[in-house]
Structure to design on (572 residues):
Protein backbone atom coordinates (compact mmCIF):
# COMPACT_ATOMS: atom_id res chain seq x y z
CA UNK A 1 0.00 0.00 0.00
CA UNK A 2 1.51 3.29 -0.96
CA UNK A 3 1.03 6.64 0.67
CA UNK A 4 1.82 10.11 -0.61
CA UNK A 5 4.04 12.12 1.71
CA UNK A 6 2.85 15.74 1.70
CA UNK A 7 6.18 17.37 2.55
CA UNK A 8 8.63 15.00 0.85
CA UNK A 9 6.20 15.07 -2.11
CA UNK A 10 6.76 11.49 -3.11
CA UNK A 11 4.82 8.28 -2.90
CA UNK A 12 6.22 5.57 -0.61
CA UNK A 13 5.20 2.15 0.62
CA UNK A 14 3.59 2.19 4.08
CA UNK A 15 4.78 -1.30 5.01
CA UNK A 16 8.37 -0.59 4.07
CA UNK A 17 8.34 2.41 6.41
CA UNK A 18 6.62 0.53 9.24
CA UNK A 19 9.11 -2.32 8.88
CA UNK A 20 12.01 0.13 8.77
CA UNK A 21 10.76 1.80 11.94
CA UNK A 22 10.16 -1.58 13.58
CA UNK A 23 13.60 -2.94 12.79
CA UNK A 24 15.35 0.20 13.96
CA UNK A 25 13.10 0.33 17.04
CA UNK A 26 14.03 -3.24 17.91
CA UNK A 27 17.73 -2.45 17.70
CA UNK A 28 17.35 0.82 19.58
CA UNK A 29 15.41 -0.90 22.36
CA UNK A 30 18.06 -3.59 22.52
CA UNK A 31 21.01 -1.23 22.72
CA UNK A 32 19.36 1.69 24.50
CA UNK A 33 20.01 4.20 21.73
CA UNK A 34 17.50 6.36 19.87
CA UNK A 35 18.17 4.79 16.51
CA UNK A 36 18.37 8.07 14.62
CA UNK A 37 21.76 7.09 13.25
CA UNK A 38 20.08 4.14 11.52
CA UNK A 39 16.82 5.79 10.47
CA UNK A 40 18.36 8.72 8.60
CA UNK A 41 20.70 6.63 6.38
CA UNK A 42 17.90 4.11 5.75
CA UNK A 43 15.58 6.89 4.62
CA UNK A 44 18.29 8.25 2.34
CA UNK A 45 18.81 4.76 0.86
CA UNK A 46 15.02 4.72 0.30
CA UNK A 47 15.29 7.88 -1.84
CA UNK A 48 13.87 10.31 0.70
CA UNK A 49 15.67 13.64 0.13
CA UNK A 50 18.46 13.90 2.76
CA UNK A 51 17.19 17.23 4.12
CA UNK A 52 13.77 15.67 4.83
CA UNK A 53 15.34 12.46 6.16
CA UNK A 54 17.40 14.42 8.70
CA UNK A 55 14.61 16.64 9.99
CA UNK A 56 12.06 13.83 10.09
CA UNK A 57 14.61 11.56 11.75
CA UNK A 58 14.91 14.09 14.57
CA UNK A 59 11.13 14.07 14.99
CA UNK A 60 11.06 10.26 15.12
CA UNK A 61 13.82 10.20 17.73
CA UNK A 62 11.57 12.13 20.16
CA UNK A 63 9.09 9.27 20.23
CA UNK A 64 11.62 6.52 20.81
CA UNK A 65 13.61 8.43 23.42
CA UNK A 66 10.45 9.49 25.28
CA UNK A 67 9.28 5.90 25.35
CA UNK A 68 12.69 4.75 26.58
CA UNK A 69 13.11 7.54 29.12
CA UNK A 70 9.76 6.66 30.72
CA UNK A 71 10.99 3.25 31.79
CA UNK A 72 14.20 4.72 33.20
CA UNK A 73 12.19 7.36 35.04
CA UNK A 74 10.21 4.57 36.69
CA UNK A 75 13.39 2.80 37.77
CA UNK A 76 14.97 6.06 38.90
CA UNK A 77 18.02 5.58 36.69
CA UNK A 78 18.02 9.18 35.49
CA UNK A 79 20.14 12.19 36.48
CA UNK A 80 18.00 15.28 35.90
CA UNK A 81 20.72 17.74 36.81
CA UNK A 82 23.27 16.21 34.45
CA UNK A 83 20.64 16.06 31.70
CA UNK A 84 19.83 19.74 32.29
CA UNK A 85 23.44 20.87 31.88
CA UNK A 86 23.86 18.68 28.77
CA UNK A 87 20.68 20.19 27.40
CA UNK A 88 21.88 23.77 27.92
CA UNK A 89 24.90 22.96 25.78
CA UNK A 90 22.70 21.04 23.36
CA UNK A 91 20.49 24.01 22.55
CA UNK A 92 23.50 26.13 21.63
CA UNK A 93 25.04 23.37 19.50
CA UNK A 94 21.78 22.60 17.78
CA UNK A 95 21.22 26.25 16.82
CA UNK A 96 24.68 26.34 15.26
CA UNK A 97 24.07 23.05 13.52
CA UNK A 98 20.87 24.26 11.90
CA UNK A 99 22.59 27.37 10.62
CA UNK A 100 25.37 25.26 9.08
CA UNK A 101 22.69 22.94 7.66
CA UNK A 102 20.98 25.80 5.79
CA UNK A 103 24.26 27.15 4.44
CA UNK A 104 25.40 23.73 3.21
CA UNK A 105 22.04 23.13 1.60
CA UNK A 106 22.21 26.35 -0.35
CA UNK A 107 25.71 25.62 -1.69
CA UNK A 108 24.80 22.03 -2.58
CA UNK A 109 27.18 20.30 -0.19
CA UNK A 110 24.63 19.11 2.38
CA UNK A 111 24.39 15.51 1.18
CA UNK A 112 28.13 15.12 1.08
CA UNK A 113 28.58 16.68 4.51
CA UNK A 114 25.90 14.46 6.05
CA UNK A 115 27.50 11.35 4.59
CA UNK A 116 31.00 12.39 5.65
CA UNK A 117 29.87 13.16 9.19
CA UNK A 118 28.14 9.80 9.40
CA UNK A 119 31.17 7.92 8.13
CA UNK A 120 33.55 9.71 10.50
CA UNK A 121 31.36 9.64 13.60
CA UNK A 122 30.04 6.13 13.15
CA UNK A 123 33.43 4.81 12.07
CA UNK A 124 35.19 6.28 15.11
CA UNK A 125 32.58 5.40 17.69
CA UNK A 126 32.01 1.94 16.23
CA UNK A 127 35.73 1.22 16.04
CA UNK A 128 36.44 2.33 19.62
CA UNK A 129 33.49 0.41 20.98
CA UNK A 130 34.45 -2.74 19.13
CA UNK A 131 38.02 -2.67 20.46
CA UNK A 132 36.83 -2.00 24.00
CA UNK A 133 34.13 -4.66 24.01
CA UNK A 134 36.32 -7.32 22.41
CA UNK A 135 38.95 -6.65 25.05
CA UNK A 136 36.31 -6.91 27.76
CA UNK A 137 34.97 -10.14 26.28
CA UNK A 138 38.48 -11.62 26.15
CA UNK A 139 39.23 -10.56 29.69
CA UNK A 140 36.03 -12.03 31.07
CA UNK A 141 36.64 -15.28 29.17
CA UNK A 142 40.17 -15.51 30.57
CA UNK A 143 38.79 -14.92 34.05
CA UNK A 144 41.26 -12.08 34.68
CA UNK A 145 39.99 -8.75 36.09
CA UNK A 146 38.95 -6.05 33.61
CA UNK A 147 41.86 -3.96 32.36
CA UNK A 148 39.54 -0.92 32.06
CA UNK A 149 40.05 2.07 34.29
CA UNK A 150 37.53 1.92 37.05
CA UNK A 151 34.93 4.69 37.30
CA UNK A 152 36.15 7.16 39.85
CA UNK A 153 39.68 7.05 38.58
CA UNK A 154 40.55 10.53 37.31
CA UNK A 155 41.71 11.85 33.94
CA UNK A 156 42.46 15.36 32.62
CA UNK A 157 38.76 16.17 32.33
CA UNK A 158 38.42 15.96 36.09
CA UNK A 159 41.05 18.61 36.60
CA UNK A 160 39.08 21.37 34.82
CA UNK A 161 37.62 24.24 36.90
CA UNK A 162 33.93 25.16 37.60
CA UNK A 163 33.13 21.90 39.30
CA UNK A 164 29.58 20.87 39.94
CA UNK A 165 28.14 17.98 41.91
CA UNK A 166 25.79 15.53 40.19
CA UNK A 167 24.34 13.50 43.02
CA UNK A 168 22.46 10.83 41.04
CA UNK A 169 25.58 10.12 39.02
CA UNK A 170 27.86 10.24 42.07
CA UNK A 171 29.95 12.70 40.12
CA UNK A 172 31.87 15.87 40.97
CA UNK A 173 33.06 17.31 37.70
CA UNK A 174 33.62 20.56 35.82
CA UNK A 175 30.62 21.83 33.81
CA UNK A 176 32.88 22.70 30.84
CA UNK A 177 33.17 19.19 29.37
CA UNK A 178 29.48 18.53 30.10
CA UNK A 179 28.41 21.68 28.25
CA UNK A 180 30.84 20.98 25.42
CA UNK A 181 29.57 17.43 25.06
CA UNK A 182 25.99 18.70 24.99
CA UNK A 183 26.85 21.33 22.38
CA UNK A 184 28.75 18.87 20.18
CA UNK A 185 25.88 16.43 20.25
CA UNK A 186 23.32 19.17 19.62
CA UNK A 187 25.32 20.22 16.57
CA UNK A 188 25.44 16.68 15.23
CA UNK A 189 21.79 16.15 16.05
CA UNK A 190 20.81 19.09 13.85
CA UNK A 191 22.95 18.06 10.91
CA UNK A 192 22.67 14.28 11.10
CA UNK A 193 19.09 13.93 12.33
CA UNK A 194 20.22 11.83 15.25
CA UNK A 195 19.58 12.04 18.96
CA UNK A 196 23.26 11.40 19.47
CA UNK A 197 22.86 8.54 21.94
CA UNK A 198 25.51 6.53 20.17
CA UNK A 199 28.04 9.26 20.97
CA UNK A 200 26.55 10.41 24.27
CA UNK A 201 26.53 6.96 25.89
CA UNK A 202 30.20 6.13 25.30
CA UNK A 203 31.23 9.74 26.07
CA UNK A 204 29.43 9.74 29.42
CA UNK A 205 30.87 6.35 30.33
CA UNK A 206 34.45 6.75 29.17
CA UNK A 207 35.06 10.51 29.43
CA UNK A 208 32.94 11.62 32.37
CA UNK A 209 32.86 8.26 34.16
CA UNK A 210 29.13 8.39 34.77
CA UNK A 211 27.90 5.08 36.21
CA UNK A 212 26.55 2.90 33.38
CA UNK A 213 23.14 2.41 34.97
CA UNK A 214 22.22 6.11 34.83
CA UNK A 215 23.86 6.80 31.48
CA UNK A 216 21.14 5.49 29.17
CA UNK A 217 18.23 7.08 31.04
CA UNK A 218 19.99 10.44 31.27
CA UNK A 219 21.02 10.36 27.65
CA UNK A 220 17.52 9.46 26.48
CA UNK A 221 15.92 12.13 28.66
CA UNK A 222 18.26 14.79 27.35
CA UNK A 223 17.75 13.65 23.75
CA UNK A 224 13.98 14.17 23.96
CA UNK A 225 14.57 17.90 24.39
CA UNK A 226 17.47 18.29 21.97
CA UNK A 227 15.60 16.53 19.19
CA UNK A 228 12.36 18.37 19.98
CA UNK A 229 14.29 21.62 19.65
CA UNK A 230 15.92 20.43 16.41
CA UNK A 231 12.53 19.39 15.03
CA UNK A 232 11.07 22.76 15.92
CA UNK A 233 13.83 24.71 14.20
CA UNK A 234 13.92 22.49 11.11
CA UNK A 235 10.15 22.69 10.75
CA UNK A 236 10.08 26.46 11.08
CA UNK A 237 13.15 27.37 9.00
CA UNK A 238 13.64 24.62 6.42
CA UNK A 239 10.09 23.14 6.25
CA UNK A 240 11.60 19.69 6.06
CA UNK A 241 9.70 17.76 8.76
CA UNK A 242 7.26 15.32 7.17
CA UNK A 243 4.79 14.50 9.92
CA UNK A 244 3.26 11.55 8.03
CA UNK A 245 6.65 9.99 7.41
CA UNK A 246 7.66 10.58 11.02
CA UNK A 247 4.45 9.06 12.35
CA UNK A 248 4.84 5.84 10.33
CA UNK A 249 8.41 5.46 11.57
CA UNK A 250 7.38 6.19 15.17
CA UNK A 251 4.62 3.58 15.19
CA UNK A 252 7.00 0.93 13.88
CA UNK A 253 9.80 2.16 16.12
CA UNK A 254 7.90 2.27 19.39
CA UNK A 255 6.52 -1.22 18.85
CA UNK A 256 9.91 -2.61 17.87
CA UNK A 257 11.67 -0.96 20.82
CA UNK A 258 9.66 -2.85 23.44
CA UNK A 259 10.63 -6.23 21.96
CA UNK A 260 14.20 -5.09 21.47
CA UNK A 261 14.50 -4.14 25.13
CA UNK A 262 13.39 -7.68 26.12
CA UNK A 263 15.93 -9.22 23.76
CA UNK A 264 18.64 -6.92 25.11
CA UNK A 265 18.16 -8.20 28.66
CA UNK A 266 19.17 -11.69 27.57
CA UNK A 267 22.61 -10.52 26.43
CA UNK A 268 25.61 -9.46 28.52
CA UNK A 269 26.85 -5.86 28.45
CA UNK A 270 30.06 -6.57 26.54
CA UNK A 271 28.20 -8.70 24.00
CA UNK A 272 25.65 -5.94 23.49
CA UNK A 273 28.37 -3.35 23.01
CA UNK A 274 30.24 -5.55 20.53
CA UNK A 275 27.08 -6.11 18.50
CA UNK A 276 26.20 -2.43 18.55
CA UNK A 277 29.74 -1.61 17.44
CA UNK A 278 29.44 -4.00 14.50
CA UNK A 279 26.10 -2.49 13.51
CA UNK A 280 27.47 1.05 13.68
CA UNK A 281 30.50 0.05 11.61
CA UNK A 282 28.30 -1.62 9.02
CA UNK A 283 26.28 1.57 8.52
CA UNK A 284 29.49 3.62 8.30
CA UNK A 285 30.91 1.23 5.72
CA UNK A 286 27.77 1.31 3.60
CA UNK A 287 27.85 5.13 3.54
CA UNK A 288 31.58 5.19 2.84
CA UNK A 289 31.09 2.96 -0.19
CA UNK A 290 28.65 5.53 -1.61
CA UNK A 291 31.18 8.30 -1.14
CA UNK A 292 34.00 6.53 -2.93
CA UNK A 293 32.22 4.54 -5.61
CA UNK A 294 31.33 6.43 -8.76
CA UNK A 295 27.62 7.33 -8.50
CA UNK A 296 25.27 6.02 -11.24
CA UNK A 297 24.89 9.60 -12.38
CA UNK A 298 27.38 12.29 -11.54
CA UNK A 299 24.72 14.92 -12.19
CA UNK A 300 22.00 15.95 -9.78
CA UNK A 301 19.18 18.47 -9.94
CA UNK A 302 18.02 20.78 -7.22
CA UNK A 303 15.38 23.42 -6.99
CA UNK A 304 16.61 26.98 -6.80
CA UNK A 305 15.36 29.42 -4.21
CA UNK A 306 14.26 26.91 -1.57
CA UNK A 307 17.02 27.87 0.82
CA UNK B 1 -8.56 4.64 -1.92
CA UNK B 2 -9.26 7.56 -4.12
CA UNK B 3 -7.24 7.77 -7.27
CA UNK B 4 -6.59 10.51 -9.72
CA UNK B 5 -9.62 11.30 -11.77
CA UNK B 6 -9.17 10.86 -15.47
CA UNK B 7 -9.54 14.17 -17.16
CA UNK B 8 -11.75 13.59 -20.11
CA UNK B 9 -11.63 16.16 -22.78
CA UNK B 10 -14.92 17.18 -24.24
CA UNK B 11 -15.68 17.17 -27.87
CA UNK B 12 -16.90 20.63 -28.61
CA UNK B 13 -16.71 19.96 -32.29
CA UNK B 14 -18.79 16.82 -32.51
CA UNK B 15 -21.47 18.50 -34.59
CA UNK B 16 -18.87 19.77 -36.98
CA UNK B 17 -17.44 16.30 -37.48
CA UNK B 18 -20.71 14.99 -38.85
CA UNK B 19 -20.87 17.65 -41.51
CA UNK B 20 -17.24 17.41 -42.61
CA UNK B 21 -17.51 14.70 -45.31
CA UNK B 22 -20.13 16.75 -47.17
CA UNK B 23 -18.11 19.94 -47.15
CA UNK B 24 -14.97 18.01 -48.11
CA UNK B 25 -16.40 17.34 -51.52
CA UNK B 26 -17.13 20.97 -52.28
CA UNK B 27 -14.09 22.74 -50.78
CA UNK B 28 -10.81 21.06 -51.73
CA UNK B 29 -8.72 23.49 -49.61
CA UNK B 30 -9.05 22.24 -46.08
CA UNK B 31 -8.74 24.52 -43.10
CA UNK B 32 -7.50 21.95 -40.62
CA UNK B 33 -7.65 22.68 -36.94
CA UNK B 34 -7.16 20.80 -33.71
CA UNK B 35 -9.25 20.94 -30.54
CA UNK B 36 -8.79 19.72 -27.03
CA UNK B 37 -10.80 20.75 -24.04
CA UNK B 38 -10.85 19.44 -20.50
CA UNK B 39 -13.96 18.29 -18.69
CA UNK B 40 -12.18 18.77 -15.41
CA UNK B 41 -9.69 21.52 -14.93
CA UNK B 42 -8.18 20.15 -11.77
CA UNK B 43 -6.75 16.85 -10.64
CA UNK B 44 -6.29 16.05 -6.96
CA UNK B 45 -3.41 14.01 -5.61
CA UNK B 46 -4.62 11.88 -2.71
CA UNK B 47 -2.80 9.73 -0.15
CA UNK B 48 -2.83 6.71 -2.44
CA UNK B 49 -1.37 8.49 -5.47
CA UNK B 50 1.38 6.53 -7.18
CA UNK B 51 1.40 8.04 -10.62
CA UNK B 52 -1.39 7.77 -13.16
CA UNK B 53 -2.24 7.79 -16.81
CA UNK B 54 -4.13 10.81 -17.95
CA UNK B 55 -6.38 10.34 -20.96
CA UNK B 56 -7.00 13.35 -23.15
CA UNK B 57 -9.52 13.34 -26.01
CA UNK B 58 -9.42 15.69 -28.93
CA UNK B 59 -10.54 16.16 -32.47
CA UNK B 60 -9.31 17.31 -35.87
CA UNK B 61 -11.35 19.96 -37.57
CA UNK B 62 -11.96 19.80 -41.26
CA UNK B 63 -9.45 17.09 -42.16
CA UNK B 64 -8.76 16.04 -45.74
CA UNK B 65 -10.23 12.51 -46.01
CA UNK B 66 -7.58 11.43 -48.48
CA UNK B 67 -4.77 12.37 -46.14
CA UNK B 68 -6.62 10.69 -43.28
CA UNK B 69 -6.76 7.48 -45.38
CA UNK B 70 -3.03 7.68 -46.03
CA UNK B 71 -2.44 8.23 -42.35
CA UNK B 72 -0.50 11.42 -43.02
CA UNK B 73 -1.98 13.41 -40.14
CA UNK B 74 0.08 13.22 -36.98
CA UNK B 75 -0.76 14.51 -33.53
CA UNK B 76 1.60 15.16 -30.66
CA UNK B 77 0.09 15.83 -27.24
CA UNK B 78 2.21 17.27 -24.44
CA UNK B 79 1.37 17.67 -20.78
CA UNK B 80 3.80 20.26 -19.50
CA UNK B 81 4.30 21.00 -15.81
CA UNK B 82 4.91 24.44 -14.33
CA UNK B 83 8.30 26.00 -15.10
CA UNK B 84 10.83 26.58 -12.39
CA UNK B 85 14.51 27.43 -12.16
CA UNK B 86 16.69 24.34 -11.69
CA UNK B 87 20.31 23.96 -10.69
CA UNK B 88 22.26 21.09 -12.22
CA UNK B 89 25.33 19.99 -10.30
CA UNK B 90 28.15 17.76 -11.39
CA UNK B 91 30.13 15.54 -9.05
CA UNK B 92 33.84 15.14 -9.54
CA UNK B 93 36.41 13.15 -7.69
CA UNK B 94 38.32 14.99 -5.00
CA UNK B 95 40.75 12.81 -3.04
CA UNK B 96 38.72 9.78 -4.04
CA UNK B 97 35.44 11.24 -2.79
CA UNK B 98 32.67 12.29 -5.16
CA UNK B 99 31.92 15.94 -4.47
CA UNK B 100 29.50 18.38 -6.13
CA UNK B 101 31.73 20.91 -7.83
CA UNK B 102 30.47 22.59 -10.96
CA UNK B 103 26.92 23.72 -11.35
CA UNK B 104 24.75 25.46 -13.87
CA UNK B 105 21.38 27.10 -13.31
CA UNK B 106 18.62 27.09 -15.85
CA UNK B 107 15.60 29.37 -15.82
CA UNK B 108 12.08 28.18 -16.56
CA UNK B 109 12.58 24.46 -16.82
CA UNK B 110 9.28 22.55 -16.97
CA UNK B 111 9.06 20.38 -13.87
CA UNK B 112 7.53 17.59 -15.92
CA UNK B 113 7.00 16.98 -19.61
CA UNK B 114 5.01 14.00 -20.88
CA UNK B 115 4.64 13.51 -24.59
CA UNK B 116 2.27 11.22 -26.46
CA UNK B 117 2.60 10.81 -30.22
CA UNK B 118 0.98 8.95 -33.09
CA UNK B 119 4.34 7.71 -34.35
CA UNK B 120 8.02 7.87 -33.30
CA UNK B 121 9.06 11.54 -33.18
CA UNK B 122 11.70 11.18 -35.88
CA UNK B 123 9.03 9.86 -38.30
CA UNK B 124 6.69 12.82 -37.87
CA UNK B 125 8.79 15.80 -38.90
CA UNK B 126 12.32 17.15 -39.22
CA UNK B 127 14.55 17.77 -36.19
CA UNK B 128 14.74 21.42 -37.20
CA UNK B 129 11.03 21.92 -36.87
CA UNK B 130 11.02 20.30 -33.39
CA UNK B 131 13.75 22.72 -32.40
CA UNK B 132 11.73 25.61 -33.73
CA UNK B 133 8.62 24.49 -31.86
CA UNK B 134 10.72 23.61 -28.78
CA UNK B 135 8.80 20.35 -28.84
CA UNK B 136 9.82 17.02 -27.29
CA UNK B 137 11.90 16.26 -24.19
CA UNK B 138 15.12 16.60 -26.17
CA UNK B 139 14.15 19.86 -27.83
CA UNK B 140 12.75 21.99 -25.04
CA UNK B 141 14.77 25.15 -24.87
CA UNK B 142 16.54 25.47 -21.55
CA UNK B 143 17.53 29.04 -20.80
CA UNK B 144 20.84 29.16 -18.89
CA UNK B 145 20.89 31.75 -16.09
CA UNK B 146 24.42 32.67 -17.08
CA UNK B 147 24.56 32.77 -20.90
CA UNK B 148 28.25 33.72 -20.90
CA UNK B 149 29.29 30.18 -20.01
CA UNK B 150 31.18 28.15 -22.57
CA UNK B 151 28.69 26.63 -25.06
CA UNK B 152 30.16 23.17 -24.48
CA UNK B 153 29.48 23.46 -20.75
CA UNK B 154 25.93 24.63 -21.31
CA UNK B 155 25.36 21.78 -23.75
CA UNK B 156 26.74 19.26 -21.29
CA UNK B 157 24.55 20.47 -18.42
CA UNK B 158 21.46 20.77 -20.63
CA UNK B 159 21.99 17.18 -21.72
CA UNK B 160 22.43 16.10 -18.09
CA UNK B 161 19.28 17.95 -17.04
CA UNK B 162 17.20 16.13 -19.65
CA UNK B 163 18.76 12.83 -18.70
CA UNK B 164 18.01 13.24 -14.99
CA UNK B 165 14.43 14.31 -15.69
CA UNK B 166 13.92 11.32 -18.00
CA UNK B 167 15.48 8.95 -15.46
CA UNK B 168 13.11 10.29 -12.80
CA UNK B 169 10.15 9.62 -15.10
CA UNK B 170 9.30 13.31 -15.20
CA UNK B 171 10.13 13.64 -18.87
CA UNK B 172 8.58 10.85 -20.86
CA UNK B 173 7.62 9.88 -24.36
CA UNK B 174 4.71 7.62 -25.14
CA UNK B 175 5.07 6.61 -28.75
CA UNK B 176 1.75 5.44 -30.11
CA UNK B 177 0.11 7.15 -27.15
CA UNK B 178 -2.10 9.12 -29.52
CA UNK B 179 -4.60 6.95 -31.36
CA UNK B 180 -7.18 7.97 -33.90
CA UNK B 181 -10.53 6.52 -32.94
CA UNK B 182 -12.19 7.74 -36.12
CA UNK B 183 -11.31 10.13 -38.95
CA UNK B 184 -11.44 13.07 -36.57
CA UNK B 185 -11.42 11.82 -33.06
CA UNK B 186 -8.20 10.97 -31.20
CA UNK B 187 -7.27 9.85 -27.76
CA UNK B 188 -3.92 10.64 -26.08
CA UNK B 189 -2.50 8.91 -23.01
CA UNK B 190 0.15 10.81 -21.07
CA UNK B 191 1.93 9.59 -17.97
CA UNK B 192 1.86 11.44 -14.64
CA UNK B 193 4.92 10.50 -12.56
CA UNK B 194 4.38 9.55 -8.87
CA UNK B 195 6.17 12.74 -7.85
CA UNK B 196 4.40 14.98 -10.36
CA UNK B 197 4.51 18.58 -9.25
CA UNK B 198 1.51 20.45 -8.09
CA UNK B 199 0.60 23.61 -9.95
CA UNK B 200 -0.80 24.66 -13.29
CA UNK B 201 0.00 22.16 -16.02
CA UNK B 202 -0.68 22.82 -19.65
CA UNK B 203 -1.96 20.26 -22.14
CA UNK B 204 -0.89 21.15 -25.68
CA UNK B 205 -1.78 19.40 -28.91
CA UNK B 206 0.24 19.83 -32.12
CA UNK B 207 -1.12 18.86 -35.54
CA UNK B 208 1.16 17.86 -38.43
CA UNK B 209 0.20 17.09 -42.01
CA UNK B 210 2.70 15.33 -44.24
CA UNK B 211 5.42 16.28 -41.80
CA UNK B 212 4.47 19.96 -41.77
CA UNK B 213 3.32 21.67 -38.60
CA UNK B 214 -0.16 23.13 -38.96
CA UNK B 215 -1.82 24.12 -35.71
CA UNK B 216 -1.49 24.04 -31.97
CA UNK B 217 -4.08 24.20 -29.24
CA UNK B 218 -3.81 24.08 -25.49
CA UNK B 219 -5.80 23.73 -22.30
CA UNK B 220 -4.91 24.20 -18.66
CA UNK B 221 -5.03 21.63 -15.92
CA UNK B 222 -4.56 22.33 -12.24
CA UNK B 223 -2.84 19.53 -10.33
CA UNK B 224 -3.10 19.93 -6.60
CA UNK B 225 -2.86 17.93 -3.44
CA UNK B 226 -6.19 16.73 -2.14
CA UNK B 227 -7.74 17.94 1.10
CA UNK B 228 -5.63 16.28 3.78
CA UNK B 229 -2.27 16.39 2.01
CA UNK B 230 -2.87 19.97 1.03
CA UNK B 231 -3.84 20.88 4.59
CA UNK B 232 -0.66 19.32 5.98
CA UNK B 233 1.49 21.05 3.38
CA UNK B 234 -0.15 24.43 4.03
CA UNK B 235 0.11 24.04 7.76
CA UNK B 236 3.81 23.17 7.51
CA UNK B 237 4.59 26.14 5.32
CA UNK B 238 2.29 28.81 6.71
CA UNK B 239 2.13 27.88 10.39
CA UNK B 240 5.59 26.41 11.02
CA UNK B 241 5.64 26.83 14.81
CA UNK B 242 2.21 25.26 15.27
CA UNK B 243 3.05 22.45 12.86
CA UNK B 244 6.29 21.64 14.64
CA UNK B 245 4.54 21.64 18.03
CA UNK B 246 2.05 19.22 16.53
CA UNK B 247 4.88 17.00 15.25
CA UNK B 248 6.56 17.03 18.67
CA UNK B 249 3.30 16.36 20.53
CA UNK B 250 2.52 13.51 18.16
CA UNK B 251 5.94 11.99 18.82
CA UNK B 252 5.51 12.22 22.59
CA UNK B 253 2.01 10.80 22.44
CA UNK B 254 3.15 7.92 20.22
CA UNK B 255 6.06 7.20 22.54
CA UNK B 256 3.80 7.23 25.59
CA UNK B 257 1.05 5.12 24.01
CA UNK B 258 3.62 2.66 22.75
CA UNK B 259 4.88 2.30 26.30
CA UNK B 260 1.36 1.57 27.59
CA UNK B 261 0.32 -0.76 24.78
CA UNK B 262 3.50 -2.81 24.63
CA UNK B 263 4.52 -2.65 28.28
CA UNK B 264 5.79 -5.97 29.50
CA UNK B 265 7.27 -4.95 32.83
Amino acid sequence: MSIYLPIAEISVNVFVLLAMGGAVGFLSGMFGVGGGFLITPLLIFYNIPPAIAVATGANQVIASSFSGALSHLKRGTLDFKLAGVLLAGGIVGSTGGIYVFSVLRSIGQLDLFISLLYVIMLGTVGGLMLVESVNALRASRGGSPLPLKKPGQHNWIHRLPLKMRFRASKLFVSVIPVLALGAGIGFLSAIMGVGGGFIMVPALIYLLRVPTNVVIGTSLFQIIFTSAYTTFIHATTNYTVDIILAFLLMVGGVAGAQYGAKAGQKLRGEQLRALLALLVLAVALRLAVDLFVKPPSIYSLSAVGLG
Amino acid sequence: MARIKKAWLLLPVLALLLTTPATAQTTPAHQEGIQIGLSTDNVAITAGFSGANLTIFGALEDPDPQIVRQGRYDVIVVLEGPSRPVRVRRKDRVLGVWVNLESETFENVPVSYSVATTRPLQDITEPASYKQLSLGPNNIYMQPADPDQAPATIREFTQALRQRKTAAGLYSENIGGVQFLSQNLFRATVRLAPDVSVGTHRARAFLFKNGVFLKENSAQLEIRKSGFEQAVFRLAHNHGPFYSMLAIALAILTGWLGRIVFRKD
User: Anything to note?
Assistant: Chain A has a mean pLDDT of 81. Residues 42 and 51 of chain A are 13 Å apart (CA to CA).
